[in-house]
Each structure stands twice: as C-alpha cells, then as structure tokens.
Specification:
By secondary structure, this protein is α/β, with parallel strands linked by helices. Helices cover 61% and strands 10% of the residues.
C-alpha cells in the first residue's frame, strides 16, 4: 500500500508542479539512523515531497488531528506516520506524546529515518517560526540508545517553491550535509537535559536557515522575486532558465543584501524598488515576461523553425486536447472553487486542498464518463474511456502550455516588429536594472563582506 500511494503521490506532484528538482541527495546517509528536519511552508505538500523524493524510506511525525480525517488519515497510516498531540488540540494528553517520542526513538534506534517539521505547523510567514524542541528531544533520546559505534545524524532539508499555490509552478527539495548528534548519558525513561535540548534546537535552526529564504517582511520576498526574474535573463544564453538551485541561491543573496541596502541607502533602495515595479507593470501591460525580450532570438530562420515546430505540435495534440479540456474543465473549476472556499485565505493550505480535491474529482470524472460509455456503448467503450481520458487530460495540459508560450513569443515578436521603440526601451530598462543591482551588490561587499 505504501508503494502504491507513494507512486500516486509522485505522479500527482509531477502534474501539479511543472518543474521539480532535487539536490544534495548524496548528502543523505544510505544507512543508519537519520532525522530529516524541514521547513513547513506548504501544508501536506511538504511531507509528500520528502516521502516521494527522499532516497530513504521515511516515517513522519504528524499532528494527531490529521489521523481522524477521513482521507488524510488513510494516507497518514499508509505512510507509517507517528501521531503527535499538541497543546491546542482537543483532548491533549502529554502522556500520549511520551509514547510518540518512544516510538520515534525506536524507529531511529533500529536504523530507520523519520521526518520532522520543527516549526510545528505550516505557515506563510516571511521567515522560520521559532522551533519546537521535540526534534532535539527525540534525536538526543535516540542517540543515547544507540550502540557506541553508531551515530545519530540530522539532515537539514529545505523546501523552496517558486509560487507554492500556483498550478504548474516549480519546486526544489534540497538536502544539506548532515551533522551528528552528540549522545548524552540517559537513564531509562529519562528526558535529555534542558541545556542539551536547547543547544541542539539552536543548531537545527541555524542549519535550516541556511537552506531556506529568510526575511523580516513578506514584502522583501515579493521584491526579491521580481528582481531575480530580471537578473535571470542572460543575453549570452537566450531562452535558457537557470536551475532551481541557482535561482534559490540568487534569491538568498538578494535577501541578504535587501536589509543592507534598505538601511544604508534608503533613497537608492526606494528608487530601485519603484523602477522594478514600473518595469514589471510595463511588461504585464504588454503581456510579456523578461524572457521574451530577446532580440537575438528574432532571426527569421530561427523564428520560422520555431513556429513550424510549435504549430505541428499543436495540430498533433489538438484532437486529444479538445477532448481533455472539455471533459475535465468542470472538475478543474470545481477544484479551484473548493480549494478557495476551504482554505479561507490560508496560502499554506491552498495547494494541499487543490491536490486532494483533484485526486478526488478527476477520478470521479473518469468513473462517471466510463459509466456513461458503458451504458451507451458497452464494456469495451468504458475501458477505453478509463484509459484514454487521463491521457487526453495531459494532452490538454501540454497543448495549453505550448499555446501560451507561442502566444507570448508572438506578442514579443509583434512588439519588436511594429513598436521597435517600445521593445528597445524595455530592453534598455532591463539591462539598466540589472546593472544597478550588480553595482549595489559590489558596494554591499565593501560595507558588509559577510
């Protein structure tokens, strides 16, 4: 059951996110007790990433109320999750957590791996929440129970989403190098000393801050996101997109410089922020993004080849795409409606609800269509419907994405041909913003080398 559910979740993630990258897998120890500690920005999507993409079989600590939910509880049990009671939960009993910690330590002592979100809850804040001490207490307890030749290791893992609530966005799971837990001598049933727990919690927090994006205000993330989009465009490699690891690294460095610039040069900071905002608004008004402004890509032979290939793909996909869009559009709209209503503005819950709603409504669409075909044409038609509809849905998705890219390219080409002055002005503004950001970066190095 675990293998089946893991495969289904892996497929769902690959559909929901257009681009998924995993880095640092070589850092994960192949054997021995391992605790993965992660940031928690995106609800149930976060554990799904680790469960499907980690190179180890992982058990999770999950809040106890999840086990009482009809569908989510099934998945929690299928993945051998370990329930954790929280003070804010109804019927909280500290004795239950002592049993939970004992189970988690037993998994680690047997050489297994567990995943923990030390923040305690999913959120959409600009930086990590203060960490709970549970992860440190479990790790220290497990380390004390290990033989002298075994080491308890903690692997910090960072989850980065380009736009976590947006369908067909991008996501990165990065594993940092592990660190060992120094064992503390403990008698049977004893809890680790408070100073050791706090010291290890602090070390976990520092390690997580290295693999996550940290800022004091949400506005900083929004400005840095726009700045990174502008910086990521390279005239030397038109159309090329950096890896998510490189994208994350650029955003992290921009956030590091954000506070320095805002404090040291407030006027320059305000002017640059305004300039970036105006540039983004101009692009949006033209229906473009920074990667469309590539005049060297508008060579007639290259344009003709691109258009021919794109149109050929669209014609090939068109019949299946029409079936897929028409059949699945009601379910697609219902997923958005349900997710918006249930999330109630909580961004960290939106993607989770979308995924779960889609896992319910799309199979219902296939089952309903197959039933209708069975009554109309018989069993063979019903079986063909069950097989072909998911493929048609994927064809529709690919068709719409390719069509969107073709339309964006056509808009850029039209601007280049018929409003050359506007195109060149946007291009010059992009280059000027890039140069301003890089110049500020060089000055920041002089003010704050760290």
């Amino acid at each position: 059951m675990r293998t089946l559910v893991r495969a289904v979740f892996g497929l769902v993630l690959r559909v929901f996110f257009r681009r998924i990258e995993v880095s640092g897998s070589a850092h994960v120890p192949a054997r021995g007790p391992v605790m993965f500690v992660l940031n928690h920005p995106n609800g149930l999507v976060d554990p799904a990433f680790l469960l499907c993409l980690a190179p180890r079989r992982v058990s999770f600590l999950a809040k106890a109320p999840l086990f009482r939910m009809p569908v989510i509880g099934f998945f929690c049990r299928a993945f051998d999750a370990i329930p954790v009671s929280r003070r804010q939960d109804a019927g909280f009993d500290p004795a239950q957590n002592r049993q939970t910690f004992g189970v988690a330590r037993a998994v680690l002592a047997s050489g297994g791996a567990i995943g923990v979100f030390p923040e305690g809850a999913s959120h959409s804040e600009a930086k990590l929440r203060p960490l709970k001490t549970g992860a440190a207490r479990i790790a220290l307890g497990a380390a004390a129970a290990l033989p002298t030749d075994a080491r308890m290791q903690i692997v910090p893992a960072g989850l980065y989403y380009r736009a976590k609530r947006v369908f067909r966005s991008a996501a990165l799971l990065h594993f940092a190098p592990p660190f060992s837990v120094d064992p503390q001598p403990l008698a049977a049933g004893d809890e680790p000393p408070t100073d050791a727990v706090l010291a290890l919690t602090g070390r976990i927090e520092r390690a997580l801050s290295e693999v996550t994006l940290q800022a004091e205000q949400v506005e900083a993330h929004a400005l840095v996101e726009r700045a990174e989009r502008i910086l990521s465009v390279s005239d030397e490699a038109p159309g090329a997109r950096p890896s998510l690891v490189a994208e994350f690294d650029v955003r992290r460095r921009l956030l590091a410089g954000y506070e320095v610039v805002r404090t040291q040069w407030p006027d320059r900071f305000a002017a640059l922020a305004t300039r970036i905002d105006r540039y983004e608004l101009a692009l949006a008004a033209a229906g473009l993004d920074p990667h469309h402004l590539m005049p060297q890509g508008f060579v007639w032979r290259r344009v003709a080849r691109y258009v021919v290939v794109a149109l050929a793909w669209l014609l090939v996909l068109l019949p299946a795409a029409l079936v897929g869009v028409v059949a699945h559009y009601p379910a697609y709209r219902a997923v958005g409606f349900v997710a918006t209503g249930m999330a109630r503005g909580a961004e960290d819950a939106l993607a989770s609800i979308k995924v779960l709603a889609a896992m319910l409504l799309f199979p219902l669409t296939w089952a309903g269509s197959a039933l209708a075909m069975w009554r109309w044409r018989g069993v063979e038609a019903a079986l063909w419907t069950v097989v072909s509809l998911p493929l048609a849905a994927y064809a529709g998705l690919v068709f719409l994405e390719r069509l969107d890219r073709l339309i964006g390219g056509a808009r850029a080409l039209g601007l280049f041909l018929f409003k050359r002055w506007a195109f060149l002005r946007l291009l010059a503004e992009r280059k000027a913003i890039q140069e301003d950001i890089l110049a500020l970066g060089r000055e920041i190095e002089g003010v704050s080398p760290a």
